[in-house]
Design brief:
5-stranded mixed β-sheet
Length: 209
């Protein structure tokens, strides 16, 4: 075989090998995505996730609504339904937790219970007030909403999420404790205190804690 033919054969084989590697590399790097049912529990890192947020918020609001403060309020206010607002719920854990989604889970469970009225948070109220000011200029008299008719909250829900972590040799125990308190805005009395705990054993042999 001449040197020219040998060289051409080597080049052809190299091109084929590179093409195969390119195809294999391209296939292995492509993301694999599967839609999951929203209620499916998926634990990847062991950190706080959507399941924890939904489970804790649901259990705590159910406990809160079972307590006597609602009936006590109605008895002292001619049967009026109490109005609640969610204040600050602080993340004091070791990890990043999206507190906004947790607060929204709390709000949803409170509102959907139908047992309390719910007022918008401070930031949301500012948007609504700006809209009313805009209405004063641009809306018709029949549809314009006037100021001074807002309903003040009777109770504020506040709280925190704390963690304790213990780890050794690729194993870790994560302990989450969520505390919520419902405070009477008229006299600062705490009418309900709730607590939910989650304990997880996480094993990650290739991960250094």
């Amino acid at each position: 075989m001449s040197k020219i033919k040998r060289s051409q054969r080597v080049v052809c084989m190299s091109v084929v090998c590179l093409s195969v590697l390119f195809v294999l590399f391209g296939c292995s790097s492509a993301p694999r995505v599967e839609r999951q049912d929203i209620d499916t529990t998926i634990d990847l890192s062991g950190h706080w996730n959507d399941t924890d947020s939904q489970m804790v918020s649901k259990a705590m609001i159910e406990d809160c609504l079972r307590r006597p403060w609602i009936e006590d309020f109605k008895e002292n206010h001619q049967g009026e339904t109490p109005t609640v607002i969610v204040g600050q719920v602080v993340n004091r854990s070791h990890e990043h937790i999206n507190m906004q989604t947790f607060v929204k889970d709390l709000e949803r469970n409170l509102i959907n219970s139908g047992r309390v009225r719910f007022v918008a948070a401070a930031g949301e109220r500012e948007q609504v007030r700006e809209e009313r000011l805009d209405m004063a200029t641009h809306a018709s008299d029949e549809t314009m909403k006037t100021a001074g008719k807002e309903i003040g909250a009777d109770f504020m829900l506040i709280g925190s999420i704390n963690t304790i972590r213990d780890a050794v040799d690729g194993k870790a125990v994560m302990y989450y404790q969520t505390n919520l308190e419902l405070v009477d805005l008229e006299n600062n009395l705490k009418v309900w205190i709730g607590e939910q705990k989650i304990k997880k054993l996480i094993e990650q042999p290739k991960f250094r804690w």
